């Protein structure tokens, strides 16, 4: 113990003069503290490097344990929960190494794995479908009295995710031997896990047995409503509302909205209207999310006239709009080609309702105007946005602008101005989608020198282009006999 602490101090001292001086009582300012934290972080990363370098890839649980236990450098590393978590995270796709690391940590005197690490291990084993190991591990945890509801939730989720719902039910049946209770909460957990993975019929059967001993609550029924909707069995979902009432629970906005969303996905709007009426009749008024869902779905189905009746309906029910609703409303008006109405909503109705626009609102307006080749109006909105305090443009804001340049062939002097604006004036880093848009556009315009320089720029920032982008650019540079460029692209493609 003594020597470990000592080593930690030495290592830290040798890492950073500044941190060593943190031991002086006089220099413990907050700035200093964050610097100290930063150094600890670096130290952690260094330990991880040492350990992972030792481990290599794909060794067995025993091999990993053996390697780590018999290595002086590893043995000298002071263990912390943080370090173990980081390692488990690192090996989340390699349960053998993860379990080896876990065993090694357990074997160190003066260290105990935390409950979080145990649960992480459960998750890793479940995710990798090492289900026999998982069951052994749970047994072992149980012997140590370490199984919590959180552990059970993780194990069940992974088992059901692997299709082994029977095993998940078995865990539930054994809850009492694991020292946990079978009650409404744990029952709901089981049912929810089953329903989320579309085992709603199985959940139903289990519920019919369990309900004789365990009382359901409103949440139980909402779980079933979700479950039935997930498999598009709207009749059963709707019927569950009746059942819920039979048990004396009031269906809530969420119960109904779930079914409405499902009907929207199915495109059964007559049923949507029936449900909206039913909600109102039940004294369970739809909320702004419900209305937004319906309006967006109608717009997506290109039923613009009906979509634009939703705001009217909402207003008459006294429901207040929010930003998301207005964004969807503006988008719908745009899709319907009603630019002036969209502009009116943006300029007049939103301020009147006291709802602030956000970046997405501006982006919708800009994109709409460009789509209808009303670039003058688009630029006005962009200018307004650039000058507004609250809604800064993001990379998305400039996409319609960039597309417009390509469409109209305004490349020289215009496109570079836009990019300069983005980076110098708005301090926006170009992201993957922006680089992709630019490279594809420039290739089409026969500007592969420029495209390639952007390609290099993105690589330098560790933004990895898609295979398709590489392929496209490669064909272009080959045509231009840019051999070095071609080699670079091919090198990257090998790694993809
Ligand atoms: C739409 O829902 C109604 C029930 O409200 C049902 O009778 C009808 O068959 C459904 N239509 C489609 C296309 O699923
Ligand atoms: C704008 O607001 C909506 C609703 O609150 C939100 O969903 C969306 O992510 C916001 N967009 C941005 C860019 O902040």
Structure description:
With 496 residues, this protein is mainly alpha-helical. It is 73% helix and 0% strand. The protein contains 30 helices and no strands. It is flat. Residues 268, 270-271, 274 line the site of one 2-acetamido-2-deoxy-beta-D-glucopyranose. Belongs to the PPR family. P subfamily.
Keywords:
496 residues; mainly alpha; 30 helices; 73% helix; disordered N terminus; binds 2-acetamido-2-deoxy-beta-D-glucopyranose
Oligomer category: single chain
Bound molecules: 2-acetamido-2-deoxy-beta-D-glucopyranose
Arithmetic mean of pLDDT: 89
Number of strands: 0
- Output the helix-strand order: HHHHHHHHHHHHHHHHHHHHHHHHHHHHHH
Q: Please state the CA-atom Rg, rounded to the nearest Å.
A: 30 Å
DSSP helical segment count? 30
Percent strand equals: under 5%
Q: What does the overall shape look like?
A: flat
Class of secondary structure makeup: mainly alpha
Major beta-sheet overview = none
Helix percent band: over 70%
Distance between the termini: 46 Å
Question: Regions with pLDDT < 50 over 5+ consecutive residues?
Answer: 1-32
Family: Belongs to the PPR family. P subfamily.
Protein name: Pentatricopeptide repeat-containing protein
Keywords: Repeat
Pfam families: PPR_1, PPR_2
Give the arrangement of secondary structure elements.
Layout (H helix, E strand, L loop, with lengths): L1 H14 L1 H4 L9 H26 L5 H9 L2 H4 L5 H10 L4 H13 L7 H13 L3 H13 L5 H13 L3 H9 L10 H13 L3 H11 L7 H13 L3 H13 L6 H14 L2 H13 L6 H13 L3 H4 L2 H7 L6 H13 L3 H15 L5 H13 L3 H13 L7 H14 L6 H11 L6 H13 L3 H13 L6 H13 L3 H13 L1
Helix pairs in contact: 3-6, 4-7, 6-7, 6-8, 7-8, 8-9, 8-10, 10-11, 10-12, 11-12, 12-13, 12-14, 14-15, 14-16, 15-16, 16-17, 16-18, 18-21, 21-22, 21-23, 22-23, 23-24, 23-25, 25-27, 27-28, 27-29, 29-30
This protein binds 2-acetamido-2-deoxy-beta-D-glucopyranose (2 copies).
Keywords: Repeat
Protein name: Pentatricopeptide repeat-containing protein
Organism: Psophocarpus tetragonolobus
């Amino acid at each position: 113990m003594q020597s470990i602490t000592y080593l930690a101090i030495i290592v830290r001292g040798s890492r950073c003069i500044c941190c060593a001086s943190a031991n002086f009582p006089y220099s413990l300012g907050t700035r200093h503290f964050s610097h100290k934290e930063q150094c600890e972080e670096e130290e952690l990363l260094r330990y991880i490097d040492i350990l992972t370098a030792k481990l290599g890839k794909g060794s067995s649980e025993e091999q990993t344990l053996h390697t780590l236990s018999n290595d002086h450098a590893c043995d000298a590393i002071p263990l912390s929960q943080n370090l173990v978590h980081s390692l488990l995270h690192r090996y989340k796709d390699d349960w053998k190494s993860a379990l080896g690391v876990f065993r090694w940590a357990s074997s160190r005197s003066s260290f105990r794995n935390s409950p979080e690490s145990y649960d992480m291990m459960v998750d890793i084993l479940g995710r990798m479908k090492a289900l026999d190991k998982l069951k052994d591990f749970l047994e072992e945890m149980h012997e140590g009295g370490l199984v919590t509801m959180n552990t059970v939730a993780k194990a069940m989720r992974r088992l059901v995710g692997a299709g082994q719902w029977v095993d998940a039910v078995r865990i539930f049946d054994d809850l009492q031997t694991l020292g946990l209770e079978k009650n409404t909460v744990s029952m709901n957990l089981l049912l929810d896990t089953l329903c989320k993975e579309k085992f709603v019929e199985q959940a139903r059967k289990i519920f019919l047995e369990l309900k004789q001993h365990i009382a359901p609550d409103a949440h139980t029924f909402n779980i079933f409503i979700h479950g039935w909707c997930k498999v598009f069995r709207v009749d059963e979902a709707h019927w569950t509302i009746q059942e819920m009432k039979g048990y004396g629970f009031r269906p809530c906005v969420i119960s109904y909205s779930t079914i409405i969303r499902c009907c929207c996905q199915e495109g059964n709007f007559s049923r949507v209207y029936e449900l909206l009426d039913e909600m109102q009749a039940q004294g369970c008024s739809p909320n702004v999310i419900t209305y937004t869902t319906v309006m967006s779905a109608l717009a997506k189905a290109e039923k613009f006239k009906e979509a634009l009746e939703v705001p009217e309906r909402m207003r008459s029910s006294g429901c207040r709009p929010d930003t998301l609703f207005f964004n969807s409303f503006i988008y719908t008006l745009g899709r319907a080609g009603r630019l002036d109405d969209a502009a009116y909503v943006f300029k007049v109705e939103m301020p009147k309702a006291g709802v602030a626009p956000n970046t997405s609102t501006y982006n919708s307006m800009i994109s709409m105007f460009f789509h209808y080749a009303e670039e003058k109006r688009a630029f006005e909105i962009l200018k307004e946005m650039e000058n507004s305090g609250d809604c800064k443009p993001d990379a998305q804001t400039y996409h319609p602008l960039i597309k417009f340049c390509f469409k109209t062939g305004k490349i020289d002097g215009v496109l570079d101005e836009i990019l300069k604006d983005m980076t110098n004036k708005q301090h926006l880093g170009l992201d993957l989608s922006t680089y992709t848009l630019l490279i594809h556009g420039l290739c089409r315009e026969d500007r592969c020198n420029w495209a390639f320089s952007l390609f290099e720029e993105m690589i330098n920032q560790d933004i990895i282009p898609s295979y398709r982008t590489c392929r496209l650019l490669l064909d272009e540079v080959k045509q231009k006999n840019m051999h070095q460029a071609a080699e670079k692209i091919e090198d990257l493609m090998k790694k993809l």
